[in-house]
Design brief:
With 574 residues, the protein is α+β, with helices and mostly antiparallel strands. Helix content is 30%, strand content 20%.
Length: 574
């Protein structure tokens, strides 16, 4: 390699690192300025930069795979509707179309062209989940997309630097939280504006007229890096299936993963058909999470962009729940789509078992709580109306050399919403939020534990919950000898009556709602777990003393220390 080519590579690596800082500042702008708690507190966003061909070059670390990887395809749809030659300075484009964006109406995607002089040099895109889009509200009860809320086709949100007021007016008049939703649209626009400004600063600093050379370098390097990782795996086809709760009936997710030289293909033929309710998944969202599952253990060090995604091919037959077409209801598509990493990891466990975690809760446990006229079984009276989407999670599966993560979202990546914030913006009291002991599956490495929340209305009025939960009938499975996690429960406190895992249901004004979230599956033989680790789990409340003895064969004394003699006897007896 000549000295000149070596210097060129160093220069482009510096430019690439700078580009990463640009998109991270882009994302942080959205978080800092967002009105809704889903963006500001939970980080349910994505941000990235694309070249003029619509290829994703870089994504922010902050964000969710369902947004990022689906948005990678979404920018191409924007360019089909508005080619580069019709874009002008001051233009901003928007959509929340599930099949052109990130899978459901609550996600607004905004795309902004960036100009250097009179030429477009890049496109910035970002997405956030807004609190409400009208319709039946954020929940799985819709039967068609028309019932689920306002659907904005790809159109201009701003022209000549001015927001298109009729578009904002239509949105304001169709949502329950107009101030928050409109505010988030401004935040999305600001997010891309900051990204574009920083990119132009970077290009001027480096004397760049276009991003073409850097884009080709980034994409080809990532493609080559991913291909090299795949070449290390044995060719072949590997099968896995997973049964989950579904809505009207259980759902089977069936995958065949084929490793073929420098590419991996996943075919979901055999998966259950579409649902009559809003848990169907558009194909772009299926592709987003299935590819993320692969990227978690294959080529994880390779940057996520159009190059590293290209060798991963995801397909699902039309009419299956993973390739639902218009006008299927799709609001709760995440409940199914977020299971897909576990499905493909089950295939890869047959190839690289030392790198694959056990199954986790996977789908978010984000209760949508509402109060107001006509929403509850009892009369709502004069209590304060509200609609809140609060983000929480169960436990993740045990990892190959570590325990699972407790009450942590995976694969989504969003954060738990602080209860103080929830109580500030809605008339709710969260009486309890604590780890759920013994919910993590047993194993050499323990599954992450879930959490328990207890909620009531602060004004003693009834309230409704839109349930979009899974792993209630079929819990997360352990791997390689590990035990299953504990299934989730939704119940009323007064009489212990169980709520269904999906659909809108009510809680009376004098009652409380208890949500017990699942724990992740364990990995490996529980009797190979270090007794001192079991004792630590007992002290921290992750494992009860009874489970320590019956499941792990470890006796813990009153001071939290391992009783060596009793432990030896317990393990010998088992």
């Amino acid at each position: 390699m000549s000295q000149k080519s070596a210097l060129d590579q160093i220069r482009m690596q510096i430019q690439w690192n700078r580009l990463l800082s640009v998109v991270e500042e882009q994302a942080q702008t959205l978080i800092r300025t967002a009105f809704s708690t889903s963006a500001r507190e939970a980080g349910d966003i994505s941000a990235g930069v694309y070249d003029c061909k619509g290829r994703m070059l870089a994504q922010a670390v902050t964000g969710t795979p369902g947004h990022v990887n689906a948005m990678a395809a979404s920018v191409g749809f924007f360019l089909e509707r508005f080619p580069l030659e019709v874009m002008k300075p001051g233009d901003i484009f928007v959509t929340n179309d599930p099949w052109l964006g990130t899978g459901h109406l609550n996600d607004f995607t905004v795309v902004t062209p960036t100009f250097l002089g009179n030429e477009i040099v890049a496109l910035f895109a970002c997405t956030t989940h807004v609190v409400d889009v009208g319709g039946k509200g954020f929940g799985p009860d819709g039967r068609q997309i028309y019932e689920e809320g306002i659907n904005i086709p790809i159109m201009r949100l701003a022209e000549n630097g001015e927001f298109v007021e009729p578009v904002l007016a239509i949105i304001r008049n169709n949502v329950r939280n107009p101030i928050e939703v409109e505010g988030d649209l401004y935040s999305l626009a600001a997010c891309n504006d900051v990204g574009g400004t920083r990119l132009i600063d970077m290009m001027r600093e480096f004397g760049m007229e276009t991003l073409d050379t850097l884009a080709d370098y980034v994409i080809e390097s990532a493609r080559a890096g991913m291909a090299a990782e795949i070449r290390e795996l044995p060719n072949g086809t590997y099968h896995n299936s997973m049964r989950i709760d579904g809505y009207e009936s259980p759902i089977d997710l069936v995958a065949a993963l084929t490793i073929r030289d420098e590419e991996i293909e996943v075919d979901f033929t055999g998966t259950s058909g579409i649902s009559s309710f809003g848990i169907n998944v558009p194909l772009t969202y299926t592709q987003a999470y299935a590819s993320f599952g692969i990227r978690c253990v294959v080529g994880g060090a390779v940057p996520n962009n159009a190059g590293s995604l290209a060798p991963v091919i995801i397909g699902a037959p039309k009419g299956s729940i993973l390739n639902a077409e218009h006008p299927c209801a799709v609001t709760a598509r995440h409940v199914i789509g977020q299971m897909l990493p576990d499905v493909v990891l089950g295939c890869l466990n047959q190839v690289i078992p030392d790198r694959v975690p056990a199954e986790g809760t996977s789908c978010l446990w984000n209760p949508v709580l509402l109060g107001g006229h006509g929403l509850t079984d009892e009369d709502y009276g004069d209590a304060t109306p509200f609609a809140i989407n609060t983000f929480h999670a169960g436990g993740t599966g045990a990892r190959p050399d570590k325990d699972g993560l407790n009450a942590t979202a995976f694969p989504s990546g969003v954060r738990n919403t602080p209860i103080e914030v929830n109580e500030t913006i809605a008339p709710l009291v969260i009486w309890r939020k604590e780890y759920r002991a013994d919910s993590g599956g047993a194993g050499r490495y323990r599954g992450g534990v879930g959490q328990v929340m207890e909620i009531s209305h602060s004004q003693h009025a009834p309230f409704a919950i839109n349930c979009m939960f899974d792993r209630v009938t079929y819990p997360p499975r352990g791997r390689n000898g590990g035990g299953d996690g504990t299934a989730g429960i939704i119940e009323r406190a007064n009489d212990g009556s169980r709520l269904n895992s999906k659909g809108r249901q009510s809680v009376n004004g004098d009652d409380k709602l208890i949500i017990s979230m699942p724990g992740g599956g364990g990995l490996g033989n529980p009797h190979e777990r270090d007794p001192s680790e079991v004792a630590r789990d007992v002290l921290l409340g992750f494992v009860s003393p009874e489970a320590a003895e019956t499941v792990y064969g470890v006796a813990v004394d009153g001071e939290g220390m391992v009783d060596e003699a009793r432990t030896k006897g317990l393990r010998a007896a088992s």
